[in-house]
Amino acid sequence: MMASEKDPLISERSGSVREVGNHAIWSLSSCKPGFGIDQLRDDCMDTYWQSDGQLPHLVNIQFQRKTMVSHIYIYTDYKLDESYTPSRISIRAGTHFNDLQEIEVIELIEPSGWEMIPIKDIHDRPIRTYMIQIAVLSNHQNGRDTHMRQIKIHSPCEPTSFDLNKLHNFSTVKFQQYSTIR
């Protein structure tokens, strides 16, 4: 995988996706005071969420309307966090807490940087969901609590421009006046 594929900002700047995490309500299964959602979403790699309790540690992301999700990016750093670094993560999706279905399980081996997790349905298309749950199932070195430094949720962008070339060529003068936009 190329480095650019693992950097969510490059995808966002290209216009092919947008970050939709700010349209969601976030909650955590637990956190140490001062190490919660604000740190998880502040775009700073030096801050992090630290859980405070038993595994699995949960990040719940609830959207007000059904939202298309194509990728989840998680930033972790084994060199800084060691036993706090997640080693196995489950991604679940559904309409609410009671109908979540596991759609992806990933194994992380001493990760450092962004991990891109494609979110696809059985037809290899982005999913449409009301809720995503990220569950940390285990940590490196059998650590109890976890650190996650950032999470980004990407949705594909709809094309905003209308390609007039896809239409038939206009043949009358009356219609040709509408063939370009000033």
Helix and strand composition category? mainly beta
Main beta sheet strand tally, sense and closure: 5 strands, antiparallel
General form: elongated
The sequence of SSEs as H and E is HEEHEEEHEEEEEEH
CA radius of gyration? 20 Å
DSSP helix count? 4
Strand order of the largest sheet: 2-4-9-6-7
Topology:
Elements: H1 8-14, E1 17-19, E2 24-28, H2 37-40, E3 49-50, E4 57-69, E5 71-77, H3 78-81, E6 86-94, E7 101-107, E8 112-118, E9 127-139, E10 147-148, E11 150-156, H4 173-176
Antiparallel strand pairs: 1-11, 2-4, 3-10, 4-9, 5-8, 5-11, 6-7, 6-9
Summarize this structure briefly.
By secondary structure, the chain is mainly beta.
Task: Describe what you observe in this structure.
With 182 residues, this protein is mainly beta. It has four helices and eleven strands. It has a five-stranded antiparallel β-sheet with strand order 2-4-9-6-7, with no helix packed on it. Strands 1-11-5-8 form a four-stranded antiparallel β-sheet. A two-stranded antiparallel sheet has the order 3-10.
